[in-house]
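Problem: given the chain below (382 residues), write out its structure.
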Amino acid sequence: MLTDCQELFTRLRRLPDVEAPNLVAVDAADRLILDEADAALAVAPAGTVVVVDDQYGALTLGAAVRHRSTGLRVHQDSVVGERALAANADREGLTGSYTRHDLDAALVTGARVVLLRLPRSLSALGEIAETIARHADPDVVVFAGGRDKHISHAMNDVLGRSFTDVHASRGRQKSRVLTARTPIPGPSTYPVTDTLTDLDLTVVAHGAAFAGPRLDIGTRFLLEFLPRIGATDPARGAAVAVDLGCGTGILAVSLARRNPDLRVVATDQSAAAVASAAATAAANGVADRVEVLRDDSASTLPDDSVDLVVCNPPFHIGAAVHTGAAEKMFDAAARILRDGGELWTVYNSHLNHRGTLKRVVGKTDVAGRNRKFTVTRSVRTR
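Solution.
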């Protein structure tokens, strides 16, 4: 068994997430969270430590090594982080130190210590804080940390709605920890539901779902091309479409409503996103034709199995601006599309993804462009 966290940290990997010189598996915020929580972890009984949104395993495995913590309960919204933790734990012989959970009562009931990587979304933080306050032990202490540039005073306010005592640590290496005590149990306010009146579409959103119950402007632009998207070739029979990085499922549901013979797979790496997409499909009466799948860039879908992919890819990985996530999605689309299948993509015009799409997928034309976004249609050729 390892006794040195620093030795452990040198071996942690990001895989299956993108790896690059400017992308790390362990950062100063992970180290500061563990240091701030050190005394609490030292006396926490087995089974009372919870870890939320560990990026690649530093918090979970760090607690297991430094304090020989067992019975750790872990929730990660990202399936990529979940798989990275599993791979790192397997290499270090620590697979049995933790169990995976949804963001629910089973995750936090009786918890005395919670280690949390602060999400960038205030809504995501609000849902996490509410869940902890409602179900954890009354003496629970939450250590929520992140990089200074992504921490705002509004996060104190969000935590303050669920905890009486919230204070910030001193900064270290451009990182900081917010410590929250004395929970204020209350009713759940998530998921939230709203209606997009111009689309006559109901959206259901959990806290960590991108854009919440709103329609982001990139997806709105792509929806303008809906009459041209999903036109099926009768010779192919019932068509299959994939909403790759589905978020709350607005594209998937819109496709299903417009094309009654189309079966749609709404897939995302986020647990909050796929739960939201499933609820959005049900709210709009297309749950029988919209299947949700939590996956890393459609990795479990067979090769040459779908006719259509729609995609509004991210332009960042975590906090870092990086095209790796988008390129991974383009590779996935190329793999799962049948010969002649189409990929419709919307992206920030300055990223100029057209060359990559042409090389990876096939012939790519610009279908439309406005002041901020470009929509392209790529045809798969093998």
